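Workshop exercise sheet. Pairs work together: one partner reads the sequence aloud, the other fills in the structure field after running the prediction. Swap roles for the next sheet.
Pair: D.N. / O.F.
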Amino acid sequence: MSNTETMFVKAAEGKRVRKESGGLLANDGEAVPRNTFWRRRLKDGDVIETTAKAAKPVK
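Structure field:
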């Protein structure tokens, strides 16, 4: 998949988000398909789109 077909998201603060498969989205975020399901979660404010680097700060 190319970058335009996926996006990296993590749950908005205070939210626990279920994936389409039924499991929970990882706390550090995950790459997910840019489909209707995830665009709706983004629009509803359940997730925020970010980059993998922003989600995992270097210590």
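Discussion prompt: The chain has a mean pLDDT of 88. What would you look at next?
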